[in-house]
Amino acid sequence: MENPQRLAERIVEQSPDALIFADRDGIIRIWNARAQALFGYSAGEAAGKSLDLIIPEHLRAGHWRGYRAAIAAGRTRLAGTPMRTRATHKDGSKVYVDLAFAVVSDEARGVLGALATGRASPSQP
Predict the structure, then answer these.
(1) Domain extent at residue 104
(2) Whole-structure pTM value
(3) Looking at the 3D structure of the chain, how many domains does it have?
(4) Residue 87 pairs with which residues in a beta bridge?
(5) How do residues 60-107 score in pLDDT, each as one tens digit?
(6) Could you tell me if residue 50 is inside a domain?
(7) 67: closest CA among 32, 99, 91?
(8) 76-112: buried (b, 16+ CB within 10 Å) or exposed (e) per residue?
């Protein structure tokens, strides 16, 4: 069997859902192939950038209020329940996505950042 670290990397990269991890400051650190397919940015283009990359400008203030609250509390308000929201594609178009969120902590329960998993919404509102 492959070493656990390499196996975890393969799982992230080959997930059927977009996986995005952002640090406590909202800077993208992990961006998998499905995230690229959904939002149009390669991992190289997204890594190191703010989540504002995919958040429509009119939704940013609300997003950051919620993000900061989740990081401070160590948990999300919806506890992993997916929600439909709008995002911005690299080409500037708006896409509807179903996203679920989780706060990621270390062994000492220190918050490292937040994970979003998502896929294109099957229907537009």
Answers:
(1) 4-120
(2) 0.91
(3) 1
(4) 95
(5) 999 999 999 999 999 998 888 899 999 999 999 999 999 999 999 998
(6) yes
(7) 99
(8) beeeeeeeebbbbeeeeeebebebbbbbeeeeeeebe
